[in-house]
């Protein structure tokens, strides 16, 4: 049976006003972004709206819609309005939540009023205080972006509908800096939810700050963050940990990279091309291409989802290496993101380059739960 669509990630703009050094699009192996239109055209927007509505009428479950980039606000107010309102005419907010991931620099009242009226939540990318953020998140001239992002968050928080609009912050881990400083700073910004990402890397190109496959710099940092989280009398929810807890209790995760459930994720590029998860771009040039090079202008999403190529792509989320298959933590770890398993010699047939970091933080969370008398899987 074909997988259903879980997440439609829409690349409204294929360029960015920031130039983050760890970016898997502009600093990675992939070069296809250079051939993409800078912004999604009106005809692609119309085709995309039509195909997503058709898919909503085809499958039983709702799905999430994520506006992404590049920087999604570079699409501009008029086109974003057409896209969002076109979707909202048929897709209600309960079954089809729309969210936007932004660096915050272009946030203004006009955008926020649109998002408020059409029920679009906003998450802002920021890695911590200025010291943490300036390590990688600079503009195209190499200047700090910190104040622009903070000002965007302030505008978001000052909106009359901020309680709905501000979904939270997304931070890439900088393991050389204290986790408590990052946690305290993000909390001081008023972030209602936090999520954290490992830096991109694989067995051929180790992530920044990781010295070897067996080292645990990221696991150590996450253990420190978990201590901050559990010792805070008024903690801000952290999705990364909450998913681990959920999985340890036998429930399902909520995103790719944790747990063993495959997710139906499709990327829609500015020219309308339908692709695999774009994080795969950090593996090799063209890693996110489907051989058929489908496009929303002439292809139904259901045809993609029912294809053997999509089934193969979706199931690559489940690790195939023997070390993962025999690991007691596989049901929680899920082998990590496929991009972390890559090497030119073995493809994706390997444990995550973060294997030992995953083991360390999952065991730490499990031990804490058991100390509280909670039975884990």
TrEMBL record:
Entry-linked PROSITE patterns: RADICAL_SAM
Cofactor(s) listed in the protein's UniProt record: [4Fe-4S] cluster
Pfam families cross-referenced by the UniProt entry: Radical_SAM (PF04055)
Keywords in alphabetical order: Iron, Iron-sulfur, Metal-binding, S-adenosyl-L-methionine
Keyword Transcription assigned: no
SUPFAM superfamilies, A to Z: Radical SAM enzymes
Name of this protein: Radical SAM core domain-containing protein
Organism of this sequence: Marinospirillum insulare
């Amino acid at each position: 049976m074909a997988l259903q669509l879980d997440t439609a990630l829409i690349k409204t703009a294929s360029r960015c006003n920031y130039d983050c050094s760890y970016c898997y699009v502009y600093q990675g192996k992939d070069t296809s972004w250079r051939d993409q239109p800078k912004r999604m055209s009106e005809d692609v927007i119309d085709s995309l709206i039509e195909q997503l509505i058709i898919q909503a009428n085809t499958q039983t479950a709702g799905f999430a819609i994520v506006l992404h980039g590049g920087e999604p606000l570079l699409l501009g107010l008029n086109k974003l309005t057409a896209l969002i309102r076109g979707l909202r005419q048929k897709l209600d907010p309960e079954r089809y939540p729309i969210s936007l991931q932004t660096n915050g620099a272009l946030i203004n009242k006009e955008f926020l009023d649109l998002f408020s009226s059409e029920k679009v939540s906003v998450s802002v990318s920021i890695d911590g205080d200025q010291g943490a953020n300036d390590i990688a998140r600079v503009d195209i001239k190499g200047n700090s972006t910190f104040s622009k992002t903070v000002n965007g968050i302030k505008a978001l928080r000052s909106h009359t509908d901020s309680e709905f609009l501000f979904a939270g912050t997304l931070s890439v881990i900088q393991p050389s800096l204290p986790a408590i400083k990052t946690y305290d700073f993000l909390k001081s910004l008023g972030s209602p939810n936090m999520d954290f990402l490992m830096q991109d890397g694989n067995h051929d190109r180790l992530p920044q700050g990781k010295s070897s496959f067996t080292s645990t710099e990221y696991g150590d940092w996450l253990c420190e963050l978990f201590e901050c989280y559990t010792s805070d009398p008024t903690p801000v929810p952290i999705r990364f940990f909450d998913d681990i807890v959920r999985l340890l209790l036998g429930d399902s995760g909520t995103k790719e990279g944790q747990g063993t459930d495959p997710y139906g994720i499709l990327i829609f590029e500015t020219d309308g091309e339908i692709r695999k998860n774009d994080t795969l771009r950090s593996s090799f040039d063209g890693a996110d291409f489907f051989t058929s090079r489908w496009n929303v202008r002439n292809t139904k999403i259901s045809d993609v989802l029912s294809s053997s190529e999509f089934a193969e792509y979706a199931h690559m989320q489940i690790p195939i290496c023997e070390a993962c298959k025999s690991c007691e933590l596989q049901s929680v770890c899920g082998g990590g993101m496929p991009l972390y398993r890559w090497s030119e010699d073995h493809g994706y047939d390997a444990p995550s380059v973060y294997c030992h970091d995953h083991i360390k933080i999952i065991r730490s969370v499990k031990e804490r739960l058991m100390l509280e008398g909670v039975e884990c899987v």
